[in-house]
Amino acid sequence: MTGSLIVNNLAGLMMLTSLLVIGAKRPTASCWLYALQSLVLVLIFFTLSQTLEAHQLALWAISAFVTKVVMVPLIMGYAFRKMSDPSANGSIISMSMLMLSAAVIVVLCWFVVAPVQLPLLATLKPALAVSLGHFLLGLLCIVTQRNILKQVFGYCLMENGSHLTLALLAFRAPELVEIGIATDAIFAVIVMAVLARKIYRTLNTLDVEQLTALKG
After folding, report:
1. DSSP state at residue 58
2. What pairs with residue 207 in β-bridges?
3. Entry pTM
4. C-alpha–C-alpha distance, residues 2 and 5, integer Å
5. How far apart are CA 151 and CA 154, in angstroms?
6. What is the pLDDT of residues 169-205, one digit of tens each?
């Protein structure tokens, strides 16, 4: 099995884990599923580093493991462990419709990346299509989910998608870029976790519709 085929298959697995993150009932379960997805992303980085002979991606894999597989899930797991609001677990669309939307998004993204003419990406276009689709699926999660915590996970999915896109298109980016991205992810999650805890403690709800009602 070639490196490109491994990357494309792992990218497809990332999309599957995204649906599991969104569909999980408990925030702690979503945290560990997100950690699993991030581990898949790390494996993609490592495989790409060998396939494209880019040592920068090997370093990126290490930093992504520390931040995305370990630190971010632990931060969210600690912050969300006592936050529960079953009434906020609804969604604008059903899970089956979300799965169908994910498939449609990936197909549309394939048509977007098909015209891209980069020699090194000739065999990695499926992974690039999935990376763009992954970003859009995270955005769809933010738009359709009523639970604030699910919206935080939607941001994390978007961030993983953008990571993969950048790794495919700018795999020789300097290490400083990797450090900046990792720092951005950690601080963004910390800020969102603090805000979610503050909202829950003050209003005892995680339902964004309830927060919208407070505007009047």
Report:
1. H
2. 147
3. 0.89
4. 5
5. 5
6. 876 766 666 666 667 777 888 888 888 888 888 888 8
